[in-house]
Amino acid sequence: MTRSTRFIRAPRAAVYRALLDADAVRHWMVPDGMTSEIHSFEGWQGGGFRISLTYDAPTGAGKTSARTDTFHGRFVELVPDAKVVQAVEFETDDPALRGEMTITYVLTDAEGGTDLAFRHDDLPPGVSPADNELGTRMSLDKLARLVEED
């Protein structure tokens, strides 16, 4: 499991919308050094999504191919302006990277904005918790910049 928190200078409603909007997700849910492609995205409870993240430089570190991590999932639980729970799975031939993960975002009011708590449960054994946490922090920084600009 990995956990992270991020204060965002924006109301909970704005942060919540950015968690469920395909265009917003394309901009923020991508670590530094990667680009994002949204193949499909249904931002409602029970809705599915499929996303590819591609390394900008050749690395051989991709989970799906040498440069790409492709994953799919669904929105398990949505509580407006308060909580988003996703079930996510990498598309990979590597057994160490297989298995359904659960990602939970909890939004609470904070002085001048929103506290966003992130929890990632059931990481496959081939995913480094430290790398996952670093990628999450990069993404949450981008999410903050995106909604704070609005």
Strand order of the largest sheet: 1-7-6-5-4-3-2
Largest sheet: 7 strands, antiparallel
CATH level-two architecture: 2-Layer Sandwich
What are the secondary-structure elements, in order, as H or E?
EHHEEEEEEH
Q: What is the distance, rounded to the nearest whole angstrom, between the alpha carbons of the first and last residues? A: 32 Å
Question: What is the CATH class name?
Answer: Alpha Beta
* Beta fraction: 35-45%
What is the CATH superfamily?
START domain
Domain unit count? 1
Strands, total number = 7
Helix content class: 10-25%
Shape: globular
Helical segment count: 3
According to CATH, what is the topology?
Alpha-D-Glucose-1,6-Bisphosphate, Chain A, domain 4
Organism: Catenulispora subtropica
Domain Activator of Hsp90 ATPase homologue 1/2-like C-terminal: 9-148
Protein name: Activator of Hsp90 ATPase homologue 1/2-like C-terminal domain-containing protein
Family: Belongs to the AHA1 family.
Give a brief rundown of this model.
With 150 residues, the protein is α+β, with helices and mostly antiparallel strands. It is 25% helix and 41% strand.
